[in-house]
Amino acid sequence: MNFSSEKLLRIIALLAVILVPAWAGAQELTVEAEDVECLPIEDNGVAWARVTNNVPDTTVRLNFRRMHDAVEDLYYTFMNPSGEGRYWGLFPKAEDQVLNRHDLIETREEIQEEYRWASWWREKDSSDDRDPNDPQDEDELDDEYLRERASLGKKLPREWLAEMDDETFQSWLEQLENEPAEYYISVHDSEGRQLARSPTRVTEVRENCRADLTPQERGEAENLTVGETALWQRDEQVFHWLCDGIVTRIDPTNVLRGDGVCRACVIVWWKKKGILLATAGTLVPVGLVSVLDDDPEPAASPDSP
Questions:
Q1: Residue 173 phi/psi, 5° resolution?
Q2: Does residue 154 register a pLDDT over 90?
Q3: Residue 123: left if φ>0, alpha if ψ -120 to 50, beta else—which one?
Q4: Share of the chain residues as helix, strand and coil, in percent rounded to the nearest 5
Q5: Which of 185, 181, 214 has its CA nearest to residue 199?
Q6: What's the rounded Cα separation, in Å, for the pair 142 and 147?
Q7: CA-CA distance, 244 to 118, in Å (whole number)?
Q8: Is the pLDDT of residue 223 over 50?
Q9: What is the pLDDT at residue 270?
Q10: Which residues, other chains included, contact 93 with Cβ-Cβ below 8 Å and sequence gap of 6+?
Q11: pLDDT of residue 29
């Protein structure tokens, strides 16, 4: 069969239309989270990630939570592209929260006495009820609280935990100043479905951690949108993270709303006596905003000296 040059070009073009998308689809979308050295107490931290073979109409999320003994459900913020497949995103400001200690009480030959805190966390991570000790023990957790606040987060594998042996893990736990933060990066389609994610990592939260944010990052930190993953999170402050900078929330059905919880905190803060309000970079004396006080001081009588 003889083909003219024009027909041959048409065949080649048709094959390209069929084969190129198939080849592109075979390229795996991957996400790699970079190490976050630490997070400062009461200030924002930055996370970086690299996304390879991303596709159109996706969002990249920084998913995070504090390493708490009972609350395991996560929150997220959106990450920003920075060129060449790299993205950056912000954590809210971490509260000053000490990590609660629990030792595994059940006696087993393979559990060494000096590693009982590490063993408690390993047992918790592999259990469905998330309470490693017997319910009759004094160290038990509230089962109803666990069921509500670990309903989704308990399904997340802690890959970072498998990288430590018991001795290393126990030593790390004992030197912690504060609840650590766990995080991973994920890519989602326009309907919120997860397409890919990185392994979970952990980072320390401590006072001697510096937050050197760029002007762009600081601007983002003052206007954060935080996504929720569980229904119980709706009318509560982001668990063990400060309100400062959080202005918008997204519920699990992808509905955007103003953060009413943190706005209420701001109103209460304004009502406190003895505080100077800053507007447009200018301090306003308390006397000029005394109308915000519920119980203003009575005016002095004309006879007062």
A1: -60, -40
A2: yes
A3: alpha
A4: 30, 25, 50
A5: 185
A6: 9
A7: 33
A8: yes
A9: 44
A10: 42, 43, 44, 241, 242, 244, 245
A11: 97
- Phi/psi at 137 (nearest 5 deg)? -80, 155
Average confidence score pLDDT of the chain = 83
Is 289 a residue whose pLDDT tops 60? no
Handedness of CA 220, 182, 160, 54 (dihedral sign): negative
Q: Using the predicted structure, report yes or no on whether residue 277 has a pLDDT greater than 70.
A: no
CB atoms < 10 A from the CB of 67, how many? 22
CA distance 229 to 148: 12
pLDDT of residue 188 exceeding 90: yes
Could you list the beta-strand ranges (E) of 144-267: 181-188, 194-197, 201-206, 224-228, 246-250, 256-258
Cβ contacts of residue 294 below 8 Å, gap of 6+? 271
Handedness of CA 233, 237, 240, 242 (dihedral sign): positive
Cα separation, 71 vs 86, in Å, equals: 30
Residue corresponding to tokens 């395991």: 72
Contact between residue 87 and residue 97 where contact means Cβ atoms under 8 Å apart: no
pLDDT tens by residue, 85-126: 999 999 999 999 999 999 998 766 667 789 999 999 999 999
Residue 133 is which amino acid?
Answer: N
Angle between helical axes of 166-174 and 116-126 (0-180°, round to 10): 110
Task: Note the pLDDT tens digit of each residue in 55-79.
Answer: 999 999 999 999 999 999 999 999 9
What distances in angstroms separate CA 97 from CA 94, 178, 239, 264, 273, one per listed residue?
Answer: 8, 5, 11, 22, 27
On the question of pLDDT at 21 being above 80, the answer is no
CA dihedral (227, 218, 242, 71) positive or negative:
positive
pLDDT at 13: 57
Rounded Cα–Cα distance for residues 102 and 140 (Å)? 9
Distance CA 192, CA 148 (A): 22
